[in-house]
Automatic annotation (TrEMBL):
Residues 62-214 form the HhH-GPD domain. SUPFAM superfamilies: DNA-glycosylase. It comes from the Bacteria. This is DNA-3-methyladenine glycosylase II. Its EC number is 3.2.2.21. The keyword DNA damage applies. GO terms for biological process: base-excision repair, AP site formation; DNA alkylation repair. It comes from Diaphorobacter aerolatus. Keywords: DNA damage, DNA repair. One of its GO terms (cellular component) is protein-DNA complex.
Length: 220
């Protein structure tokens, strides 16, 4: 859904970072002492946005509560079932075939519900660019298997919304603990207080906090 990309002479135009990235970095380094150190330390990297909405959300459902490698194997098998990964095609699949790909009965139900939401027009995908974050989250969490965490990750990594603060993400809280509280446990309230200096670029700050914990490029 998103990958790290070096910014430099070898950059690829079709994988450009969000247009606000440099402005956000300047703001964060000016307003926040940790970001002033962290952003230069981590180098010229940024997220890039990939994938279509349906496939992105379907992959998030497949990957729930399983190891990354296992999720990838199941996804690869599942992705071979439809001729193309579209809501209509998923709705034509047989439950037995989906189960044979390694999906649990519950995840089959979740994927069908996701496909129904897209296929029926209950999701206003074409209007998302003009909708605020909370309105999109409300649409997404009405789908079975889509949590607030999944919705936040979708806003940040797929839609590229600049001011997402995913307080349900334990890795983000751990990173804030390490960077701002000397490793002491932090509450959601503590995280909100830290993020006051990040606004309106909480997504970018969150990215660098995650990156500070991950030696490899972040993917979602």
């Amino acid at each position: 859904m998103a990958t790290l990309k070096k910014v430099g002479n070898d950059s690829q135009p079709d994988l450009a970072p969000p247009g606000y990235w440099q402005e956000a970095c300047k703001h964060l380094m000016k307003k926040d002492r940790v970001m002033r150190r962290l952003i230069p330390e981590l180098g010229n990297v940024s997220l890039t946005l990939r994938g279509d909405a349906f496939t992105t959300l379907a992959r998030s459902i497949v990957g729930q509560q399983v190891a990354v490698a296992s999720a990838q194997r199941v996804w690869e098998k599942f992705a071979l079932l439809p001729a193309e990964m579209t809501p209509a095609n998923v709705l034509r699949l047989k439950v037995d075939d989906m189960r044979a790909a390694g999906l649990s009965a519950r995840k089959v139900e979740y994927l069908v519900d996701l496909a129904l939401h897209f296929d029926s027009g209950r999701l206003h995908v074409g209007e998302w660019d003009g909708m605020d974050d909370d309105a999109i989250v409300a649409e997404l969490v009405a789908i079975r298997g889509i949590s607030r965490w999944t919705a936040d990750m979708f806003l940040l990594f797929h839609l590229g919304r600049p001011n997402v603060m995913p307080l349900d993400d334990p890795t983000l809280l751990q990173g804030i603990s390490n960077q701002y509280f000397s490793g002491e446990p932090v509450s959601r309230s503590d995280a909100r207080e830290v993020a006051e200096a990040w606004k309106p670029w909480c997504s970018v700050a969150s990215w660098y906090i995650w990156r500070s914990l991950a030696p490899m490029p972040v993917q979602c």
